[in-house]
Amino acid sequence: LVNGISLYRNFDAVRNEIGYVPQRDIIHMELTVFQALDYAARLRMPADVSAEERHRRVEEVMADLDLTERQDLTVSALSGGQQKRVSIGVELLTRPGLFFLDEPTSGLDPGTETALMQLMRSLADQGRSIILITHATKNVMLADKVIFLVRGGQLAWYGPPNEALAWFDQYRSERERRAEDMSFDKIYNILEDLSKGTPADWEARFKASPAYEKYIAAPLGLTPHTPAAEAVSPALKPAAPRLDRAAARRVSGLRQFFILSARNLNILIRDRFSLILMLLTAPLLAAFDFIIARRDIFDSTTGRAERVAVTLFTLTITAIFVGALAQMREIVKEADIYKRERLVNLKIAPYVLSKIWLAMLLALYQSAAYLIVRYIAVKMPGGPSEMVAIYVTLVLASLAGMMLGLFVSALSPSANAAPLLTILVLIPQIILGGGILPISSLNPVGRAASSLMASRWAFEALATISGFGRDVAADTCWRLPKDERTALSSDYKDANCTCLGKKLFKQCYFPGLLAFYDSAVERSEPAKPVEPLSPGDPPPQPTFPPEPTLPPTPQPLPTPERPEPLTFGLSKPPAPPEQPEVYTPIAQLQYNIAVGQYLQDLDAFNRKAQAGQLAYMGSYTRSIEDYLDALQAYNGEVQSLQQEYNDRVQRIREDYNRQVEAIRQQYADELNAYQVKVETARAEQERYRSAIEAYQQDYGEWQRARARSVAGAETMLANFYDRYGDAYAVNVASRWLAQGGIIVGLFGLILILQKRKDVV
To answer: Burial level of 325, CB count in 10 A (0-12/13-18/19+)?
Structure first.
């Protein structure tokens, strides 16, 4: 209860009546004392309070806290006690009636501690209720009342400090009293000594004491039958207008946004080292393009496609990383300030938007730095429209990185944990961004996760805007499945493809593609030597005329017949008898008789023949002479015919031989001419063989050069298409929308995380 009003039910009504200073200072160390108090006043005071009134109140608070002479010093330049005074001053701006301080003197030297406690005394004398928690007991006597709590939050004492000494002194032994006087330090020892009572015992003892009746029961109007929560002194009940006044103190969300934005900008400007580092980080990192890239990396001949992809992805990752690292502590570093301002009247959305607004300014600057250095280091393709598109992509990537940093900052339990959490959210941006592992190679979970990566959408947008794979994406042949594409024939590629086959060197743009070009691609096929004519078949064997037909042999006159000698009618005896086959005397006798008879007949014949011969000789001699004359005439005629025949045959044979010789000579001439042709053909064949060998070598080299040139270019295109083909021709606007969706999603998550930090 606060003045009898439930704190939790009516927190908005009483929040400005309560001041709270936590143990850690709730001020920005980069601001001056005046600025810290002025921004706090602008956030807490109603909008109808003029700047003059606000400044007057700030000066009053500084005067009360003895900070006027230090109003232009940054808070970080103050001592610990002075910083604590500034934290107290923030709470005093709205004149709270109830003031809580948690260990305000911790870490202070004794002199500063005393001064701070005296300040609290003076504030209490102004009519404020000040409750502070402390373990330092040196200046406890300055308090009106002290409360001692034991373990479990049970009340062991509430009342004036001098009476507390007397109350706890009664639980000391005589020996302890004689040893030393009672002090507040001894009370801690007494309460921790269980032999002198448990926490419940101490609470029961106090409730039974007169101090409880005097300082608690009577002021609250408690009776033995009245619960403490229901009994409130009428004098302590607040007036109704007080609630209205509290409600009227609210500041609109838009006003809070402008105030917080101005404060954040002022903090950034005053933190010169961080500001200079932020301003230099982008151009310095972008300057690595002068190292890892060349100006002509997009050139078709001297360019390097792998460097194009690397530099585009590096540009994306750099924008995201720098943005995230720049914002990873923006929320967590002022967690205590946020919690306190949230308890007062701070709205979550204006607070987060004030961070995003400044992040957007940085994103615009850093993206411009990336772009300018990029265009100086690398000859980028395209014109002003592409330049604007790249700038928009980089702005979204940088802003997405900064939103990641703010998300990590909202999620981190401490500033020390923020870098580790930042690494956890940034590493997936590298792995799943599409620059190292192709998106198509990821499993379904990986592809789904990659859709949440701002680096993926920014890289795809940059790849499309740069146009380094636009012609490949436009070629329908590359849209075929990989197995179908690799099975395409050379003739089909030459006829139907612009980035496959020999056309790719003329109709396809890709960085470094023409480095594979060989003039053999355009050169005609080497002329094949003409094969020499064959000498033909040798002349056919000559066909000789048939042997001449000889005239028939002349037939001479009939040969004269030789006259035969006459027998004069005599018969020559028969042949002598034959020897008998079987010898017998009779047969032998008969044989001898026959032989004798034969001999007699033969002798008679011979005698008659000799007589006729003599008579015939004269006539026969004349016949023989006539015969010889006729035979001589016959021989002369035969010789004449034979000579005539021989002459005729000789003429025929001479004519035939002349014909044969002419044919043989013609064949010999033809054979000689053929031999000349054969020798000529052999020489031509040798020249042809040398020419065909040279042709085959030239043709093979021509084919290899063409194949090496085209195949090398196609292989390079295939390698990059498999890795980055999905990014060659995307819808850039959809990638911007995806980045915007991630930014909006992170904004929602940051709001949720900040809302979960509310303690009331």
So the answer is: buried
Angle at 256 between CA 253 and CA 258, to 5 degrees: 115
Tell me, rounded to whole angstroms, the distance of Cα 238 from its chain centroid: 69
Give the whole-angstrom CA distance, residue 231 versus residue 644.
188
Q: Which domains does the chain have, with CATH numbers?
A: 1-135 (3.40.50.300), 253-469+731-756 (no CATH), 522-728 (no CATH)
Residue with tokens 């056309």: 503
Distance CA 344, CA 338 (A): 10
Q: Map residue 602 onto helix, strand or coil.
A: helix
For the whole prediction, is pTM greater than 0.85?
no
- pLDDT tens digits along 553-580: 766 566 667 666 555 556 667 777 777 7
Residue with tokens 């950034």: 268
**Which of these, 132, 137, 88, 92, lies nearest to 114 by C-alpha position?**
137
Q: Residue 126, SS3?
A: coil
Three-state DSSP at 330 gives coil
Query: Band of the pLDDT at 244, cuts 50, 70, 90?
Result: very low
The secondary structure of the chain in percent helix, strand, coil, rounded to multiples of 5, reads 65, 5, 30
* Residues paired with 102 in a beta bridge: 133
Go through 406-439 and write b for each residue having 16 or more CB atoms within 10 A of its CB, e for each that does not.
bbbbbbbeeeeebeebbeebbeebbbbbbbeeeb
| Pair 591, 580: CB distance under 8 Å | yes
